[in-house]
Amino acid sequence: MKVVLTRGDLLRGVTTVQSAVASKNTMPILANVLLEARDKKLEFVATDLDMGIRCSVPAEIVEKGNITINAKKLSDIVRELPEATVELEIDDSHKMILVCQKSNFKVHGLPKDDFPILPEVKKDKVFKIKGALLQEMIRKTIFAVSTDETRYVLNGVYFQVDGGKLRMVATDGHRLAFIQKKLEGKNDDKASVIIPTKTLNELSKVISDLGKGKEDELIVESYVTDNQIKFVIEGVEIISRLIEGQFPNYEQVIPKESDKKIEASVSELSSATRRVAILTSEKSNSIRYQAKNGKLSISSKTPDMGEAKEEMDVDYKGEEISIAYNAKYVLDVLKNVGTDTVNIELTQPLSPGILRPKGDADYLCVIMPMRV
Asked: Which CATH number fits domain 256-367: 3.10.150.10, 3.40.50.300, 3.40.710.10, 2.30.110.10?
């Protein structure tokens, strides 16, 4: 194998796939990235057996071939190279010779033979959506995913397609985030799968790296099967196993009616909540919200620390209501609503409440109250 390419393209290929490299594994070759030269491009592949990433960059192919190289070492080398042309060559002993101006490296590699082949995902169900919308959907749901490994089906985001719309839902049992957006084109296919958090984080990162201010122009294609999902974006493929199991019926969790509705400034509510949360215990992080006559009182009281209270103006004309929430859950929602004003919909002190952006019917978060 012998190829010539720019340092920038080489770095882009390595860094795009590097996050799929297995950090801890009994198979040494999974710490490597596969480089394959063919058809005027250099292809990079990495996998941890649960998720794989493939990325192609333009290159002058002097001689076709392939090799696997330790991903971290290759990345460290390329990051330190000057902005110039890079020559890569593989000798008969599976050693990669890298030359860039006055720099010369010889790195031991392993043959492709033992490197896992990424699974082929059939194009049975193909869905298209703008990169910016998908990235927004990930950001507005992924914070609510459970990190409790004993609740495996909650360790990812529910990806549901129906009626030409994509819905994404995440919950950890204490809160739930729901968002829906319209897919590109007409599509009557349906799908219901659970995507691991790591896969979605990588997908969001790739969209950011490829977008660089033009996320609206990016179109992401997703191919869905019973146990695999594949995302394709401008020369990058992310293939991932799905989480097996039945996601909870999220529609039952979302309150159908709310007779108490509060309209508040997102910035004011965020600031007040952060200040009052200073005097909460790490265990409960509980804050009380009390609405009455156009005012919202936010307070905390911890026996061994003290108490804090703050009041702000809101749009509320209903009867007095007092409810306690985990401050972190409230702040997570406010950080992601994307509007200046948030609507808070309540019923009873021990019933779940809904927070949603004003004027946006496609996004909401449900938070379970705390007993205090």
From this structure: 3.10.150.10
